[in-house]
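not sure who needs this but someone in the group chat was asking about Late competence protein ComER from Lederbergia citrea so here u go. i didnt clean anything up, its just raw.
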Amino acid sequence: MKVGIIGTGNMGTILSEALLDGKAASPSDLIVVNRTRAKAERLKHKFTGIMVANSIQEVIKHSNLIFLCVKPNDIFPLVKDNNALFKAEQCLVSITSPITTDWLENITPCSCARIIPSITNRALSGATLVTFGKKCESHWQKKLIDMFSAISLPMIIDDKITRVASDIVSCGPAFFSYMTRRFIEATVADTNIDEETATKLSEHMLIGLGDLLKKRFYSLPTLEEKVCVKGGITGEGIKVLEKELDGVFEKLLQATHRKFDDEVKHLEKVFNP
């Protein structure tokens, strides 16, 4: 089966590398294209056997499964301009949250799906969010679940929770990386620890935390309970977090949902004029 990747920016590259490292696809299966050819060539240098196409049309013509890894605003013109090339036996997958499978099904004969990856998939870990179109053939549904099981935990979700699920799975790593970085900066500014040591300790703390959860030694609440001894030092820190973080995550979600809603309204006019 030939897998086409249209767009090898950050997420297109991460998806390609994860599929290859997870043995969900072989380099000879992949046909990639990017507006800046050098980015696609970098993938080919890393994974010998990948085919770098000269055009989007070449990818569509020679692929069975096609991933659209471009910006939301670029998807409608890309699909519409090349609509004559798409075939009913192909499967078309968007990896961006504002694009619904219904919109894609209305303008292409393909089986359609939306799969929202995470940067954690690069480590063959984390989750991916899956939504199948109403007309998506069952064999494609099985193929996609099998493929993404090799690099993640694929979770089929309803459109109603797309944004908040994406906040957790796709945006979450950036949010928690930012908070960790601010934690490191505070330790360096207010104590005698150097940045390299603080960073190394923090990274291994996060890795260890992930391992504890993965191996199911503790749940998040029980883990906090085990560390936070009543009347102890950790408890004093938790009191600060409880006070200072009050309402922060609610505001974060409100901001991402506002942006998402604005994008959906704009894109809906494009897909359904």
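also Residues 57 and 104 are 18 Å apart (CA to CA). if thats useful
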